[in-house]
Amino acid sequence: MGANTVLKTRNNQVVLQLIISGVVIVAMIVFGVIMLLAQGGVIELSAAAFYQMLTIHGTGMIGAAALAGSAVMWYFLDHYVNLSKKIFNTNLICFLIGVVMVIIGVFSFEYASGWTFLYPLPALSAGAWGTVGALLYLGGMLLIGVGFLLLFIDTGRAIIQKYGSLGKGLGWDVIAGKKSELDAPPAAVVASTMVTIVNISALTAGATVLVMNIINVVNPAITFDPLLAKNLTYAFGHIFANSTIYMAVVAVYEILSRATNRPWKSNKPFLIAWTSSTILTMIVYPHHLLMDSVMPKWILVMGQVLSYANGLPVLIITAYGALMIVYKSGIKWEMPSALMFLSMFGWTSGAIPAIVDATIVVNHVMHNTKWVPGHFHLYMGLGVVAMVFGFMYYLAKNDSSIQTNGMDRFAFVVYLLSMLGVSGSFLVSGAISTPRRFATHIPEWMGPAQFGAYSGILVALALSIFIIHFVRYLVVRRKALPTTGRAQQGMI
Amino acid sequence: MIQFIAWVVSLFCMLAIAFVFVFVALKSGQRENYEPIVKKWYKVRKVYGISLVVLIAIVSVYTLRNLPYNQPVYGKGIEPIVVGVEAFQFGFDISQREFNVGDSVEFDVTTADVTHGFGIYDEDMNLIAQTQAMPEYTNTVYITFTKPGTYQILCLEYCGLAHHIMVDQLVVKE
């Protein structure tokens, strides 16, 4: 009984984080649709409202993806190492308090720096927002960051405790031939080790630049080097946003492997790919600074080349592995496996526009156009989001007896097509030089924005159907758990 | 032109990926022993992986030959027109706004307050060059005007509530 209670409680928080994330994602889509409708000339929106929505949309989407991704990672990693539930709890509390601070800062104090809060914009708003709004937003972000930092310090602690070091968590002893592939750490541990390393780095950079901004807001006489601040901002933003897919991909390994009844082995190429991803994810962020000629030229050239190389692990190992494990497997497609398979398509296809844009000569005419959101709406909208909702369906299937129905399958098709519509509209906008983060558009740029808005409405509807299934599961689970202990099955 | 190439290349690659995923999904109903599949497709992966690495190397070398950070006219012994630009919330101070076709111009761009963008759009509203305007630093962008007309300057880095109306113009005469 005691063990059951502990497992149930742990599972409860995973479930709670997932439902919060799901609802936040849909709410953020609503803001996204409103912004696209305004850009498309369909509705009128004040510039202040537009940029507040822009700020909350970016912050909310990254926050929700990270909260859900960390829940997925924690759920599977907890099978292999001894994680601290208190830290897991602390992170959620920090997240929730931080979110409240961010929301109050944005909507009550009209703070609108965008989620990148590029120094010194938080302090120099041209009269649009004041110190309180900036401090609430930056303080909220700092609190959220500290929560995640604690979480990843704990995952690192647990991995080191079990495997000896983070290097061994990445399987370096197997790569070096000191240990057999049969004794390699499981995929969930390898991925979690990578995420632990990159996110501790990212969050440290993020906390540093947030504190710099806070000091500058409190006392504008204290200034910092803007180029250093910009590097820290993108080191944080790129890595942290990127890491959400590496957290959630753990579910792909576990779910596709079980659905096909085929092993997803941690062999040497797999381990080398993850070590490569660890290094590359941390050092490719200069592709966000390609239009800053004051950066050392060699760093910018490396920004291009390493961004190309960063596509290799997923293209050659992860996505290829997903294709191989499914190929002629006789798999019986269900919502979890279908969404996981789709997520690998979203990840790989979404990486393509990013790789193209990392080319310096291309970036020269596409940086900060809507091409960039085209990339990450595909990458995150059809990658991370598919993984998260696929995991929700997986939990529902494992933990309860509820069945998916025609509506779920219908929603899957709608989600796929409409998310392609949203991403495609951004890519087309980018190709015709439409700037991103513009409250209004000239008539030539409005068509794709309208198409994106209507597609976004369909995405919100499809994801709402996914959420309804998850809520049905929550209701069943609430009634069934005390007597059947089904939650425990989901944990094993 | 570059945008068109980027679009076509991206679309081609994404469609190729979609084709592979659909093909595998269609074949997933059949059941075969996994070991032979692994053996065969690991071999294919080796070729595929090496091909991708070679492709990356070739594309890198090709696209890194002429970087926008270098002004080609200096190598030809021609001095460009140097134009100072200072961005501010929400406009641009530009030391010269009129040019002639064939003029090679070096824009030295900085800002008086927050980070801005300096994007040059042609008459068809195609983005043809850009750089960032950063406090305390001067970024440089080079352009040789080949067509007459009125070019728009747009801020391409979010800088506050009037970001989208931070617009200026350059005129290029015959």
Concise overview:
The complex is a heterodimer of chains A (492) and B (174). With 492 residues, chain A is mostly helical.
Please give a structural write-up.
The complex is a heterodimer of chains A (492) and B (174). Chain A folds into two domains: 1-45 and 352-492; 83-331, Up-down Bundle (Cytochrome C Oxidase, Chain A). Helices cover 77% and strands 0% of the residues of chain A. Chain A has 16 helices and no strands. In chain A, helix 2 crosses helix 13 and helix 11 packs parallel to helix 14. Chain B is α+β, with helices and mostly antiparallel strands and 174 residues long. Chain B is built from three helices and nine strands. In chain B, strand 1 (81-88) and strand 2 (91-94) form a beta hairpin. The radius of gyration of chain B is 24 Å and the shape is elongated. The two termini of chain B are 23 Å apart. At the A-B interface, helix 2, helix 8, helix 10, helix 11 and helix 12 of A face helix 1, helix 2, strand 5, strand 6 and strand 7 of B.
* Overall morphology of chain A: globular
Report how far the terminal alpha carbons of chain B are from each other.
Answer: 23 Å
Largest sheet of chain A: none
Examine the secondary-structure arrangement and name the CATH architecture of the largest domain in chain B. Sandwich
* Number of discrete helical segments of chain A: 16
Number of strands of chain B: 9
Q: At the third CATH level, what is the topology name of the largest domain in chain A? A: Cytochrome C Oxidase, Chain A
CATH topology of the largest domain in chain B: Immunoglobulin-like
SSE pattern of chain B, N- to C-terminal: HHHEEEEEEEEE
Output the strand order for the largest sheet of chain B: 3-9-8-5-6
Computed Rg of chain B: 24 Å
The radius of gyration over CA of chain A amounts to 22 Å
Beta fraction of chain A: under 5%
Secondary-structure element pattern of chain A, one letter each: HHHHHHHHHHHHHHHH
Total of domains of chain B: 2
Largest sheet of chain B: 5 strands, mixed
Number of strands of chain A: 0
Mean pLDDT of chain A: 93
